[in-house]
Each structure stands twice: as structure tokens, then as C-alpha cells.
Amino acid sequence: MIINTLLKPTLMRCALVAAFFVVAGCSTHTVKTTQTAPVIQEHAEIPEAELLDVGIYLFDPGLDLANEEDGPAVFPEIRKAESRYMPYRLMETLQMSSAWGAVRVIPASQSSVDVMISGQIQQSDGETLLVKLSVKDATGRHWFDKEYTGVASKYAYSKQRTGTIPREPFQGLYNEVANDLLTFRRNNFDGAQLRTIRTVAELKFAQSFSPSAFGGHLSEKDGALQIDRLPAEGDPMLERIRRIRERDYLFVDTLQDYYGTFVKEMDLPYQQWRSLSYNEVIALREMKREARNRTIMGVAAILGGIAAAGSDSGSARAAGSVAVAGGGYMVKSGFDKRAEAEMHVEALQELGDSLEAAIEPQVIELEDRTITLSGTVENQYDQWRDLLREIYDLDTGSE
Amino acid sequence: MSRAERAAVLEGQLEESMATYDGMILREREYVLSRANQRGSEEELEAADAGGLPYDEGGDEEGQEGAGAPPPSGPEGEENMGEEGGPQGPSGSSSGSGTLPPGSQSRQGDYSHSGGYAPPADIPDGSDDDVVARQIREAAMKEPDPKLRERLWEEYRKYKNQSGQ
After folding, report:
1. Is residue B74 included in any domain, yes or no?
2. CA of B5 to nearest chain A CA: how many angstroms apart?
3. Is B165's Cβ below 8 Å from some Cβ in A?
4. What 8-state DSSP symbol labels residue A60?
């Protein structure tokens, strides 16, 4: 009885304090800003031989990471479309810095570009964009891995968006990547190193077409390629390889046309989906938070009420009854909020389904077209490899 | 066949296949370009008919900020990639040279369509060229290698005959 008397007020206090802390602890504060850091421009004149080309691989859609329990559903077709859309937007942003040579979105088969960026989409719901990027150069040197998170301002989707707010809600994220890349290059490479990267990329390309002629020019040391010897100036085989490389650039440029058209086509529905999804995601989070808080407060009130019901004081017992009744009501309203949250989940599902249906034919067409052209080009490359081998054998008398 | 003759044959095959490849790529780019133009026109029409909503569920939401009307499309909608300048991307462009920073020189692989070598006498003035023909013509006029240049002109003649121009 003594223990019971001691426990009751303690239990009541604990329940109320716990409820306070849980509720306080669950409140979130997200700062969203419309300020976008500008892309740092390269004002120095970079010699042609030191101007690095950048290849951005199509992003990994991150479907393996998708877990519906942790957040809104992930729509595979939208993610696949985003895996093309986002590299393209990054490419446009990198071009703005005037710090690089040709910046292109490239297929996975391309490995002889000066700088290569690969990325994985981890979250994209209109409100938050989370991508993980990895950068390396042609020598195999790893530049950096970094996760980038962008949170869209609500004004980004507003009709009243003014000239100071970028049309792309996550432009700040792309700008940050561009700035990191430029800063890394400035801080880590001198002119000679930049030229080495360019030469290694060219020799890798040459090696892939004529391993017999260029197999001995590169070697690996500490995980990075180094140049052992250079081809002679005016080497006819290198001249042939350079002409083939120009054709390879043409192929990649054609892919840019594909991607550019695709991005243009999906831009409008995608922008609208992001805008609607943004609102639903925020509403869903609010509902879930309110549902959780009400349930916790309700349970705490019930516990406190039960404890007070055993009190010797009549007023405390009356207050306990009120607390139990009030707690029950709060728990019920918590369940109601959960039901409302479910509606937002359904709305998100419908929005996603709708956009998927709208862009799926374009995604399929893009894939078909890309695969067909890549196959044709690869066949041609195989033919050229055979021809180059025959020419090399004739030149060296090994036939 | 002597070694030199064999080498010449192989070189010829290489050049021929390059000219064929150029023609194939140029035709593909023409397709993409015309498709983009066609889609652009369709989208403009659809937007005009449907009040600009890209898909039907778009208008069902109420109170959604920014959802009442689509954001602007086309170049005017791209004005704010950053605070400094606009994009220089090759979207819709048929040239890879758009990716170079301003002021830098042209580099290998960039397909700039300028200058070059005079066309053979039988080549018309090109005033009625379509986009593909124009691209082949410009590639040929730019090609320094006379053999490859002749292949490109051959490709140009073939294309003009096929297209009945």
C-alpha cells in the first residue's frame, strides 16, 4: 500500500513528463531557403590540353534501396526517368562553370573520359533530393564520394516564383556539385597533371581499339594508371584512332540529343508531379506527427488518470476520471489522424501512378533507341578493331 | 596482292566505313531533331487545348500551391539555372560544340559546321538542302582528308537522290 501510494504520483509525473519530452522531441524544424549558391565560374583561360572532359554516367535509380516502410512509395518508372533527367541537369550546370571541356551524359560502356561522375538517387519526392555521387578520373584516381541533399523551398513550385528562384527546385544541389568539382580540380592538379589525365584517357581509348599497338603505353601503379611511353608524333595508328574517337564523340553527342529531347518531354509532367508530391509529402509528415503526438499524449493521460483514480483525494480521483476520458478521446483522434495520413499516402500513390503512366512510353522509347544505336555503333567499333588489327599486323610484318 | 596494296585496301575499307558511319549518325540526329520539333509542336497544341495540364490528374488537387498552372516550358522557363548566366547546354542542339566554355578553342570531336573545302563541281548550291543534307554537306566541306571528303560527297549525292531533292 505504501509502495502503491508512492508509485502513483511518480507514475503520473513520469507519464506526463515523458509525454512532454516525446512530443517536444518529435517536433521538427526544417529550414528551407530560396537562396541558391551560384555556380563558380572559371575566369582563367585554360589551355586546350588541360581542359578536362567530363562524363556523367546515367544515375543508379536506387531501386534496391527503396523501402516503402520508411517513406513514400518509390515509383520505378519515375526513378528510371530521373536517372536520366538528373545527370542531364547536372551536365547543364557543369557547362555553366566554363571550367571543363565537353561535358556529356554517357552510357556505362564509356570509360575513357577524362573525369567520370557516377551517382545514385537515394531519395526524390519533390521536397527532398538525396543523391550520392562518386568522381574519378581516367587514371583511376578517386576524387571524392559525397552525399548531396537538397530541400526544395515551397516557393520553388509556386506560380509566383520570381526571377531569383531557379526553375529547377534543386538547382542549389547541382550548383554545389559543380563547385565541389571545380574546387577539387583547382586544389589538387597542376597543368602537367591535367595533361596527363587527358593523355591517359586518349591512350585508354587507343588501347581499347588497338591493344596490340597501344598495350604497352600504360601501366598500373598504386591503383592508378601511369604513362610508360608516348606514341610517336604523327604515328599513323594514333591518327586513325583519333579519327575514330571523333566518331565516338559524334555518337555521344547523338545520345545527348536523345537525352535532351527526353528531358524536355518529361519536364512539364515531372515538374508538376514534384509540386504535388511536395505538398502531399509535407501533409503526410504533419499528419503522422500529429497522430503520433496525440496517441502518446492520450496514453499518458490515461495512465495518469488511472494512477489518480487510486488517490485518497476525491478531487484527484475526479481529475483522474477526466484525464482517462480525455486521454481516450486523444487516442481516438490520433487514430483519426492516421486515417487522414493514409489518404495522403493514397494521393501520393495516385500521383506517382499517373506520372509513371505519362512518361513510361518515353522511357521505353529512349531505352530502345539508345540500345539500338549503341548496338549499331558497337558493331561498327568491332569492325574497326578488326581492321586496325589487320593494318597493324601488316605494318609490323607480323602477318 | 602486295603488302602495300593490301594496306591500301584496308585503309580504303576503314575510310568507307567511317563515311557510312557518319551518314548513319547524321541521319539519326536528324530523326531526333525532327522528332523533338514535332513533339514540341504537339505539346504546344495540347497545352493550348487542355489549358496547359500535362496529365489529367493534375487539375484534381485543390489548394496545391503551384499546381494550378504548369510552369513555363521552353527556353524561357530555364532562365535560372544559377545566378550567373543561363545554361549553354546542347538540348535540342545538333552539335557537340555547345559544351565548350566560351572563349576556348575547338577540340577533337566537336562537330562545328563552319568553313572548309569547296564542293565538287557537280554539287548543287545547297539552297534546297534539308537538315540531313546540310549536315553531310558541312561535314564534307570541313573534312581535310580528300578521300574521306569524297566519300562524304558521295553520301551527299546518294542522300539527295534518295530524297528526290
Report:
1. no
2. 11
3. no
4. B
The grid coordinates listed for A156 are 520553388
CB contact under 8 A, B94 and A384: no
Whether residue B81 and residue A258 make contact (CB cut-off 8 A), yes or no, is: no
In sequence order, which residues have a C-beta less than 8 Å from that of residue B148 and are 6 or more positions away?
A: B15, B18, B19
- The 10s digit of each residue's pLDDT in A304-319 is 878 777 777 888 888 8
Regarding an ipTM greater than 0.90, the answer is no
A156-177 per-residue burial string, b: 16 or more CB within 10 A, e: under 16:
bbbeebeeebbbbbbbbbbbbb
CB neighbours of A87 closer than 8 A, spacing ≥ 6?
Answer: A56, A57, A58, A59, A105, A117, A119, A259
Q: Does residue B93 sit within a domain?
A: no
Residue A321 φ/ψ region, left for φ over 0, alpha for ψ in the -120 to 50 degree band, beta for the rest: alpha
Chain A environment of B18 (Cβ under 8 Å): 243-244, 247
Q: Give the tens place of pLDDT for each residue, A68-113.
A: 555 567 888 899 999 999 999 999 999 999 999 999 999 887 889 9
Q: Is residue B69 part of a domain?
A: no
Per the structure, the count of domains in chain B is: 1
Q: Across the interface, do A101 and B64 touch by the CB < 8 Å criterion?
A: no
| pLDDT tens track for B16-55 | 999 999 999 999 988 888 877 776 666 666 555 544 433 4
Query: Chain B: nearest CA to A281, how far in angstroms?
Result: 12
* Chain B residues 120-149 within an 8 A CB cutoff of chain A: none
Taking an 8 Å cut-off on Cβ atoms, the answer to whether A358 and B68 are in contact is: no
CA distance A24 to A183: 41
**Interface size, chain A vs chain B, as Cβ–Cβ contacts under 8 Å:** 233
> What is the extent of the structural domain holding B157?
1-55+117-165
DSSP letter string over A81-127?
A: HHHHHHHHHHHHHHHHTT-SS-EEEE-TT---SSEEEEEEEEEESSS
Return the bridge partners of A151, or none: A128
- For residue B98, which residues of chain A lie inside 8 Å, CB to CB? 95
CA–CA distance, B98 with B93 (Å, rounded to integer): 8
Give the containing element (helix H, strand E) for A289.
Answer: helix A236-309
Q: How many CB atoms lie within 10 A of CB B7?
A: 15
Which residues in chain B have Cβ-Cβ distances shorter than 8 Å to A163? Answer: 79-80
Residue A116, all three cell numbers: 567520370
- Residue B8 domain-assigned (yes or no): yes
| Of A198, A185, A54, residue with least CA distance to A139 | A198
Closest residue of chain A to B101, computed from CA coordinates: A98
Cβ within 8 Å of B, A 128-167? 154, 157-159, 161, 163-167
- CA dist B81 and A167 (Å) reads 7
Whole-prediction pTM: 0.68
Length of chain B: 165
Contacts with A326 (C-beta within 8 Å, 6 or more apart), sequence order: A298, A301, A305
Q: Tell me the pairing of strands A103-106 and A54-57.
A: parallel
